[in-house]
Automatic annotation (TrEMBL):
Keywords: Transferase. This is Glutathione S-transferase. Coiled coil: none annotated. GO terms for molecular function: transferase activity. The keyword Transferase applies. Residues 85-203 form the GST C-terminal domain. It comes from Sphingomonas guangdongensis. It comes from the Bacteria. Residues 1-83 form the GST N-terminal domain.
Amino acid sequence: MTPILHEHAASGNCYKIRLTAALAGVAIERREYDITAGETRTPAFLAQVNANGRIPVLQIGDRFLPESGAACAWIAAGTPLIPSDRFDHANMLRWMFWEQYNHEPNIATLRYWTTVVGLDRLSEAQLAQVAGKRAGGAAALALLEGHLVDRTWIIGGAVTLADLVLYPYTSRAGEGGFDLSPHPHLRRWLRQVEQLPGFIPFT
């Protein structure tokens, strides 16, 4: 049974799952949706795939698993991408939660507004959030830079899901107007991820 990834390929949240599957050696099928055309808001999608109207969703048989972190965890179960040490496992989850709460809402949102919507076409409500999201994204990148000063990987000793979920939007932060040049340790870490056996690019 090959799981099916319901996705929009340009989304970093969807790419996280493809990258995890590639590194874990798990085959997946892909089903593309045009989010700008409302294809994840149709009655059929809401009833059958995700009542929240969002992707990615990983379909396993007749069951559907929304949320990128949950899908990555299902794919990586039983592999070294999930630490066996109890503290390291919890620490991995901590960084995955942080990515969704502090990192992705700022960096990914500005990337989407810049490359898809267009900053000149934002609503007044969106424009009012730009400065805060820029500050929040810069703070997240600075925190990662400081964390990686004396660490090879996010958890320390080996690549884990924490690295894989943080890589996509960090690697594309420039598309949202963020400058990575002041962060040499962060850039070194990005190159390390890209050199992993089985790595697939974000395309």
